[in-house]
Structure to design on (224 residues):
């Protein structure tokens, strides 16, 4: 499969704690993007990191990319109940046009 | 700046009928992508279009499915003679250029009875 894999599949934490989700992929990429999806809703773009970047921040989000290991991580600091959602990583592979999505991590933040 | 718009949000069809899903990209975006999401799964790419052209349809089933993005008007994903296995959420995304951030619409949830 060309799609990425995320782990864990599900994560449950207390409000205020940090949440870390990991994503692995198989081929060379142009960029990697993280999306959030609330149950039954559309996807919200969170952050894009290019293949020549190693780390990127956006508010409470921190994304890292290790192209040698073909992996990325998403860290959400000081989590809130509103962060409860499924989080997907998606890659734009070199020479491709579309996003290849991982299987997602279901994050539950307990108030 | 309105986001990506899709309609209808929910569509119910009986087996054998046709389903037409519409997508209006963000203003200024000329690249449109369609994805399908089955329950409890990630999204899977179907087709990538630019105005009046299909660029990549490698994820599209060979039969019954077609897509277009005319010079004027929304992109249309058409499913003929729907079967129960077509029941899914269909998402459209748009971008300003190839490989750039894709912004997603709210999706159309198709239910085939």
């Amino acid at each position: 499969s060309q799609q990425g894999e995320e782990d864990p599949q599900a994560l449950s934490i207390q409000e205020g704690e940090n949440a870390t989700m990991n994503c692995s992929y198989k081929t060379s990429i142009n960029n990697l993007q993280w999306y959030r999806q609330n149950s039954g809703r559309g996807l919200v773009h969170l952050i894009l990191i290019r293949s020549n970047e190693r780390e990127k921040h956006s508010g409470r989000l921190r994304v890292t990319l290790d192209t040698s290991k073909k992996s990325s991580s998403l860290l959400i600091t000081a989590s809130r109940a509103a962060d409860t959602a499924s989080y997907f990583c998606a890659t734009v592979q070199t020479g491709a046009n579309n996003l290849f999505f991982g299987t997602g991590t279901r994050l539950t933040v307990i108030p | 700046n309105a986001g990506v718009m899709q309609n209808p949000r929910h569509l119910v069809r009986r087996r054998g009928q046709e389903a037409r899903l519409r997508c209006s990209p963000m203003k200024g975006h000329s690249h449109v992508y369609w994805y399908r999401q089955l329950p409890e799964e990630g999204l899977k790419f179907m087709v990538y279009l630019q105005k009046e052209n299909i660029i990549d349809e490698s994820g599209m089933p060979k039969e019954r499915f077609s897509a277009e993005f005319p010079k004027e008007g929304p992109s249309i994903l058409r499913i003929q003679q729907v079967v129960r296995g077509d029941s899914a959420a269909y998402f459209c995304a748009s971008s300003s250029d190839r490989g750039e951030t894709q912004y997603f619409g709210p999706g159309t949830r198709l239910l085939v009875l």
